[in-house]
């Protein structure tokens, strides 16, 4: 009876007990998991109803399922949940060869945490991040609260889902992120799946693109922090001389795997990107008196709500990846509150299976200047040094 009472509270008048039972039958996982899935579904529908400007575009299928109908009713009587999610693109029903090819393309084209109009997910995320940073409780006791952790440190895209087991703080914080700094052989590899990303004042020279920003981060790690770092400048988002990101992750993977095989001393891999936002959005904060682009850590879960775990895109290092991004995020909040946006969790893999200590970093956006981007590499390098020491 407790479950029916929960539905009575959540869905309010007009929702049948039968509808609630079918919803839970479909979404049944661990208690924390169905709670997360429920809030994500309510949030998705509520965004469409109340905040269409921050929800993904696209019409809902006319022939909706009973679950979708129940959630639709619930969203009109419920406040927003603790999860900020995007409206999911249409998922595929079966994970066959064609599906995997399509998922790979979606992975390549569906990385940024913005809607189809380039608007950031959430309301004025730059201001919200800075405001929330001063009030975040970073204690392990508070972080053990799954709802608090996800609600304040993560954006969970609605194409995927997250369980309490995925984000067990004790497990993630216990993972050793330290590396061996001794010797001259490279310890960190930096590369760019999307090498053609540029900024507000880029002039066509590589030095003013994301690759140039990677060069500066490499210089800081090598010269300032004494961590031998290798910068790979391979291009994977041009095909026949034209910008094409549809196969960028697939094209990059064998080259990065070869570099890692040739350099077994490498313990950390960073895929450095910049985000894509509306022209009116400026991801910037002030650090040490400098205008500094904000950054975001990004994790691929190799799991979609439609397909479950993607057997064709396995990643044995998901927990290690999650531990690395969370430890980086917490250190950033400790040293530079407001510098990092929420960690973004998406359904695909993004080559994060290449290394346990793997980071995908979205630094700034196309509206930032090259100087703001270089300024962002300075705190990022310091945070890396402290987490890896």
Can you put this structure into words, describing what you see?
By secondary structure, the chain is an alpha/beta fold. Helix content is 41%, strand content 14%. The chain has 13 helices and 13 strands. It has helices spanning 2-11, 17-27, 31-50, 66-75, 97-109, 125-133, 140-143, 146-153, 169-174, 210-224, 248-262, 318-335, 370-388; strands at 154-156, 188-191, 229-231, 238-239, 242-243, 268-275, 284-287, 290-293, 295-300, 303-304, 308-309, 343-346, 357-365. The strands form four sheets. The chain has a seven-stranded mixed beta sheet. A two-stranded antiparallel ribbon has the order 4-5. Strands 7-8 form a two-stranded antiparallel sheet. Helix 10 (210-224) links the parallel strand 2 and strand 3. The chain is globular, with a radius of gyration of 21 Å.
What's the short version?
The protein is of the alpha/beta class. It has helices at 2-11, 17-27, 31-50, 66-75, 97-109, 125-133, 140-143, 146-153, 169-174, 210-224, 248-262, 318-335, 370-388, and strands spanning 154-156, 188-191, 229-231, 238-239, 242-243, 268-275, 284-287, 290-293, 295-300, 303-304, 308-309, 343-346, 357-365. Mean pLDDT is 78; it is low at 1-31, 43-65, 67-95 and 114-131.
Report the uncertain regions: 1-31, 43-65, 67-95, 114-131
What is Rg? Answer: 21 Å
Give a quick account of the main beta sheet: strands, pairing sense, barrel closure: 7 strands, mixed
Silhouette: globular
H-E string: HHHHHHHHEHEHEEEHEEEEEEHEEH
Relative helix content: 40-55%
Number of strands: 13
Question: Mean pLDDT across all residues, rounded?
Answer: 78
Question: For the largest beta sheet, what order do the strands appear in spatially?
Answer: 1-12-9-13-6-2-3
Tell me the structural class: alpha/beta
Note the total helix count. Answer: 13
């Amino acid at each position: 009876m407790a479950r029916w009472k929960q539905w009575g509270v959540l869905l309010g008048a007009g929702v049948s007990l039968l509808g609630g039972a079918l919803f839970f039958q479909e979404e049944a996982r661990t208690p924390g998991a169905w709670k997360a899935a429920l809030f994500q579904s309510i949030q998705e529908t509520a965004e469409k109803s109340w905040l269409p400007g921050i929800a993904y575009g696209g019409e809902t299928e006319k022939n909706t399922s009973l679950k979708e109908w129940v959630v639709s009713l619930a969203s009109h009587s419920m406040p927003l949940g603790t999860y900020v999610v995007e409206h999911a693109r249409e998922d595929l029903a079966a994970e066959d060869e064609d599906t995997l090819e399509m998922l790979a393309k979606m992975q390549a084209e569906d990385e940024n945490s913005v809607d189809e109009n380039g608007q950031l997910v959430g309301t004025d995320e730059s201001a919200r991040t800075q405001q929330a940073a001063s009030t975040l409780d970073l204690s392990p006791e508070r972080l053990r609260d799954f709802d608090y952790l996800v609600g304040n440190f993560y954006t969970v895209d609605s194409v995927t889902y997250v369980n309490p087991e995925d984000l067990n703080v004790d497990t993630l914080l216990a993972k050793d992120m330290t590396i061996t700094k001794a010797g001259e052989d490279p310890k960190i590899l930096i590369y760019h799946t999307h090498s053609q990303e540029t900024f507000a004042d880029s002039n066509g020279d590589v030095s003013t693109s994301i690759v140039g920003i990677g060069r500066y981060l490499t210089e800081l790690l090598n010269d300032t922090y004494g961590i031998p770092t290798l910068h790979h400048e391979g291009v994977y988002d041009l095909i026949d001389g034209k910008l094409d990101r549809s196969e960028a992750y697939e094209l990059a993977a064998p080259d990065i795997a070869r570099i890692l095989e040739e350099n077994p001393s490498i313990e950390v891999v960073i895929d450095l990107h910049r985000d894509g936002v509306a022209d009116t959005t400026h991801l910037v904060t002030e650090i040490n008196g400098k205008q500094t682009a904000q950054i975001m850590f990004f994790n691929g879960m190799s799991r979609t709500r439609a397909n479950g775990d993607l057997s064709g895109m396995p990643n044995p290092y998901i927990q290690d990846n999650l531990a690395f991004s969370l430890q980086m995020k917490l250190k950033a909040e400790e040293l530079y509150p407001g510098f990092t946006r929420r960690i973004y969790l998406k359904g695909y893999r993004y080559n994060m299976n290449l290394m346990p200590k793997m980071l995908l970093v979205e630094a700034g956006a196309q509206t930032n200047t090259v100087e703001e981007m270089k300024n962002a590499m300075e705190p990022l390098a310091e945070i890396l040094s402290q987490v890896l020491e």
